[in-house]
Amino acid sequence: MNPITKTLVTLLIWVGLTVLCLIIFGDYPKGAEMPLVIMTYSFYLAPFICALSFTINLILNRDWTKKHKLWVVLFSIILVCWTLYIVFYIQSLFI
User: Fold this and answer.
1) Rounded to two decimals, what is the model's pTM?
2) Mean pLDDT computed over every residue of the chain
């Protein structure tokens, strides 16, 4: 698998684990907002997890990286934009 596919699989696993943890540990009274808070904070971490996964997979798959430089640059730009969007959103919460 190429690094982009592995990163998307990592994202799906991250979302799946978040939902699974909410199902297992989310035995809150009706109307409690804690599951929503956990889900929101886990999605704030998602771009950082994906960027880390993408970087590690680029290092491990050097041959693929050399052959597909355009895809690496495009996906890196997407990850940087997504990460900056989350960072600026979190910053706006504290202003």
Assistant:
1) 0.82
2) 88
CB 2 within 8 A of CB 61: yes
Question: What is the spatial distance between Cα 56 and Cα 50, in angstroms, rounded to a whole number?
Answer: 10
20: buried, middle or exposed (CB in 10 Å: 19+, 13-18, 0-12)? exposed
Spatial CA neighbour of 4 closest among 81, 90, 92, 75: 75
Are the C-beta atoms of residues 2 and 64 closer than 8 Å to each other? yes
Q: How far apart are CA 82 and CA 22, in angstroms?
A: 24
Q: Would you tell me how many other CB atoms lie within 10 Å of the CB of residue 28?
A: 13
* Calpha distance 23→71 (Å, rounded): 36
Instruction: Write out pLDDT tens, residues 14-24.
Output: 999 988 888 77
Start-to-end Cα distance in the chain: 42
